[in-house]
Design a protein that fits this description.
The complex is a heterodimer of chains A (about 575) and B (about 325). Chain A is about 35% helix and about 20% strand. With about 575 residues, chain A is α+β, with helices and mostly antiparallel strands. The two termini of chain A are about 50 Å apart. Chain B has about 325 residues and is of the alpha/beta class. In chain B, the strands form three sheets. Chain B has a seven-stranded mixed beta sheet with strand order 7-8-9-10-11-18-19, with helices on one face. The two termini of chain B are about 35 Å apart. The chains are: A alpha+beta (about 575), B alpha/beta (about 325). Chains A and B meet through helix 5 and helix 6 of A and helix 3, helix 6, helix 7 and helix 8 of B.
Chain lengths: ~575, ~325
């Protein structure tokens, strides 16, 4: 638990992705099974202990700490797990004097910190005997019933110091929030054992925590685990942006690039007793948010497609899909209400078939997969699945024309797929291209600025900008923190500092004097902002020092671009 | 026991001792002020006469340009005092920063102690806190919640040194309040055997010199402004907290941002300040010290000021100790705790 607690602590304070990666790599390499597997599951929020909830912790604390003091503390700290970890009486503390120190060599080289090497740890024999592993904690919490959960938790807390208690409570309650995505964790695994990330992606979801077969394979102690009958994730094939302007349509097929989210739906294990999962691009399981799709997908197959909501924004009535904004209402939810299901009905526009009836099609050329896909889609419920059409274009110029029309049809652009290419993980040169429609732009006025993170912590690099109402008032329409060069960032930072008119905590309000040309993919109606607008992917295209602020665009101009 | 209220009046901007026509730590200019220590939320400029320890007067002279030697100001070393309007005032070590004092007042058969800010654990830069028996104990409560338990100082210093050794190509930049915390961190590093030059922000220079003049050995200090970027790699740099993420820090080699403060005990606080290496080092008593001190002083009544009054008040209630909260204004503890 000590090593795990040290890892959590360092991840909390580390903002750099590479450092986070290095910390996890080190932990995975030098921590024994099954602790490292449980830790990995905890980091990616893959653990659930139904008997232990925040209420359990609150009730338990009430037995040890005065309720009023707990309430005041909780109010100050703002997090139940952390409050409880700090408040729980420390078995080691000797009050009123410096207690004999138990060195926590937290910040030596990551390796030294995370290995509980007896030579660097001064744990007394007593501590060795009392050592609580992550696996012990998981076993105790899993076995707990609702009635004995408080006692189980108390016994565990009594064996840990404050950092250990924090790690334990976060593990028990979930919501680790240490900035580690499933993708980052998988990358760490691949790096730790020098195995291909694609294999890790595939195996990950197939093996339950604590992933021992995965570690055995990673360390070369066992063959690659067999995944028959498991709905595992296949890493997505990705596209490069199209740079050269002409491509031979004899070699490439064109499809619309729909503005939804890319998903992979996998079903395995037979029609009865089978399991269906929906994976997002990062390999996160999002089936909980789309139960109607999980229920409707009843074939043993793996499809790749775009998850959309029914509507008429994309491609009109024929296109049949609402704007991304509508889809956003359904994203990021663990459960979904009936009302949501009715108001924002989801469906998948299928464009690839990776596996059908136990046969892996990924090695086949696109054309062959497409033929099988066209034959397969009718097996799915029409209500929730349709086929993404191939765009009929005679030559490249014709396609360019069609793409130009995509703006009106609110479609993101065009995909170009090499006809003879197999389905391969990742972004390979020359196989798939995305050819997005040109971005929209607007001239906006900088209103507020905030500092960035990490390397940019000393720079005002996040800008809120606005456009004019007819009444001559400036309303924020978006926020951007990219698109500029390092030189431009220095200039913008200085501008903010020299033109600050007010401060609100970390935010500086600036003189409304600088015009920023903002590029964005699309713009939508939004109730969240006073301007009633929300941009997608806004970035700073140019700094318009030449343009007076009063000549920046009006809200009405942006409203006309809304899809 | 209610007698005290006749001669000591808590006002939002300070404690007023009526028979002596004197204020304790007033937050606005007055004719006569007794000052517990040099932090800006206790020592303000503009008083006509100041009663304080010689060190506190020296600090006020440095910060506000007051004339410490002028006849209207009076230097009171520890254990000494003066009488005015029938009230006997004396100054006793508080262990908070150099020159920090508790002020004991004796009048009409009653003893009242104002702690100012204090801590109980060892600090190589100042005289340790002394328990002064009294009837009314007016205590600070900066960390008056049981979540605040400062770890042993040596543990936090070891953390800092481990970070320096682990990052030979980076500087470790420690945010520390300019009066007290900065010098304590330096002195503790020296105690732990770190004898390399320590680089400091210009805002710390004069206060460090003042400490050295008062016999606190801080070893070799160098100004960041005089140093090359490269020579600060693998070294320790100290700056006031406000400089941590400011443009100033760009002159350092890829700094690891640390912060020495009792607030670092709470992870969210540390994250908000974008701190990578939180050091829980405080010049204020933690919860255990606050409660242990009340028990040890064992006054008939405790008055609780600035900080988490509610938490300490609740503790007094649970332990059947008479207590009340004073609500003094102008106490800004976030920076220096």
């Amino acid at each position: 638990m000590k090593r795990f607690a040290a890892l959590i602590d360092r991840l909390i304070y580390t903002r750099s992705r590479n450092t986070k990666l290095a910390l996890i790599v080190d932990y995975l390499r030098y921590t024994p099974d099954p602790d490292r597997g449980w830790a990995l599951a905890a980091l990616t929020d893959a653990l659930d202990f139904p008997a232990v909830k925040a209420g359990t912790v609150r009730a338990l604390l009430a037995t040890r700490v005065d309720e009023e003091l707990f309430r005041l503390s909780r109010q100050f700290v703002g997090d139940t797990a952390e409050t409880a970890a700090l408040l729980w009486p420390d078995p080691l503390s000797v009050r009123g004097e410096e207690r004999p120190s138990l060195p926590k060599p937290r910040l030596e080289s990551p390796a030294a910190v995370l290995r509980d090497d007896p030579s660097t740890s001064s744990a007394s024999p007593q501590d060795e005997r009392d050592y609580l592993s992550v696996a012990d904690a998981v076993a105790a919490l899993s076995a707990a019933s609702r009635s004995d959960a408080p006692a189980v938790l108390a016994a565990l807390l009594d064996r840990l110091d404050a950092d250990g208690r924090y790690a334990l409570l976060k593990l028990a309650l979930g919501g680790m929030r240490v900035g580690v995505s499933a993708r980052l964790a998988k990358q760490a695994f691949a790096q730790a054992f020098d195995v291909p990330i694609d294999d890790v992606e595939e195996l990950w979801h197939a093996i339950p925590a604590p992933y021992q077969p995965l570690f055995a394979w990673g360390e070369g102690r066992a063959p690659r685990p067999d995944l028959a009958d498991v709905p595992f994730f296949r890493p997505f094939m990705l596209a490069h942006p199209l740079e050269q302007e002409a491509i031979d349509l004899a070699d490439f097929a064109a499809e619309w690039k729909w503005d939804g989210i890319r998903v992979q739906i996998v079903r395995a294990g037979g029609r009865r007793g089978g399991e269906t999962r929906i994976y997002s691009r990062g390999g996160e399981e999002i089936g909980g948010a789309f139960p109607e799709l999980v229920a409707a997908f009843d074939q043993d197959a793996v499809i790749d497609g775009e998850l959309l909501v029914r509507g008429e924004a994309q491609g009109g009535v024929e296109g049949g899909a609402a704007s991304f904004n509508a889809l956003q209402q359904r994203l990021g939810r663990k459960t979904v209400t009936k009302r949501m299901l009715a108001d924002f009905p989801a469906f998948v526009r299928v464009y690839d078939l990776l596996d059908v009836d136990g046969e892996d099609l990924r090695g086949l050329p696109w054309e062959a997969r497409r033929r099988q896909l066209e034959a397969f889609v009718p097996r799915l419920a029409e209500s929730h699945f349709d086929l993404s059409p191939v765009i009929e274009a005679d030559h490249f110029d014709h396609l360019a024309e069609l793409r130009a029309g995509a703006r009106d049809a609110a479609i993101e652009g065009v995909m170009l797929k090499r006809r003879d290419a197999p389905y391969v993980a990742g972004r390979r040169a020359g196989l798939w291209y995305k050819w997005k429609r040109d971005p929209l732009t607007a001239d906006c006025v900088m209103m507020y600025a905030q500092r960035g993170n990490g390397r940019r912590a000393s720079f005002y690099s996040d800008y809120t900008f606005g456009c004019w109402t007819d009444a001559g008032e400036l309303l924020p329409v978006g926020k951007a923190y990219s698109g500029f060069t390092d030189e431009e960032l220095k200039w913008l930072d200085k501008f903010v500092r020299d033109h600050t008119v007010d401060r609100f905590g970390p935010v500086r309000e600036v003189e409304k004097a600088l015009v920023l040309e903002v590029a964005f993919d699309s713009i939508h109606a939004s109730k969240r902002h006073k301007s009633g607008l929300a941009m997608r992917f806004p970035r700073i295209a140019r700094i318009r020092r030449d343009k007076p602020a009063e000549e920046a665009d009006r809200i009405a101009t942006l409203q006309a671009m809304v899809t | 026991m209610a007698k005290a209220t006749h001669w000591l009046e808590p006002h939002p901007h300070g404690l007023y001792v009526r028979p002596a026509d004197l204020w304790i730590d007033p937050s606005r200019p007055v004719a006569r002020a007794a000052v517990t220590h040099g932090h800006a939320d206790h020592a303000r400029s503009g008083h006509e006469a100041v009663f304080a320890t010689p060190e506190t007067l020296a600090i006020m002279a440095l910060r506000y340009g007051i004339d410490a030697a002028a006849s209207h100001n009076a230097a009171m070393s520890y254990g000494n005092g003066f009488e005015r309007g029938g009230v006997r005032f004396s100054f006793h070590p508080a262990g908070h920063v150099l020159g920090s004092a508790q002020i004991l007042m004796e009048h009409a058969g009653e003893r009242i102690v104002v702690t100012g800010d204090y801590k109980r654990r060892a600090d190589p830069t100042c005289t340790p806190f002394e328990v002064v028996p009294c009837d009314i104990f007016i205590t600070e409560a900066t960390f008056g919640l049981p979540v605040f338990r400062h770890p042993p100082t040596a543990e936090e210093i070891a953390k800092l040194l481990a970070a320096v050794r682990a990052e030979p190509d980076r500087a470790v930049l420690v945010g520390a309040y300019a009066l007290g915390k900065a010098q304590r961190v330096i002195a503790e590093l020296r105690r732990a055997g770190w004898d390399a030059p320590i680089f400091i922000h210009g805002a710390l220079e004069r206060m460090c010199a003042l400490y050295a003049e008062h016999g606190v050995d801080l070893g070799e200090l160098r100004l960041v402004s005089d140093a090359d970027k490269a020579e600060m790699a693998g070294q320790i740099v100290l700056a006031p907290p406000s400089a941590l993420n400011d443009r100033w820090s760009r002159r350092l080699p890829d700094p690891v941002t640390a912060m020495a403060s009792g607030w670092m005990r709470v992870r969210q606080r540390a994250r908000q300040r974008m701190v990578e290496l939180p050091l829980v080092l405080s010049d204020h008593a933690d919860w255990d010290e606050l409660t242990a001190t009340i028990a040890e002083v064992n006054p008939q009544e405790s008055w609780i000021t600035h900080g988490s009054e509610d938490g300490l008040l609740r503790w007094c209630e649970l332990h059947q100790r008479k207590a009340r909260a004073l609500h003094l204004v102008g106490r800004d503890l976030e920076e220096e705790a």
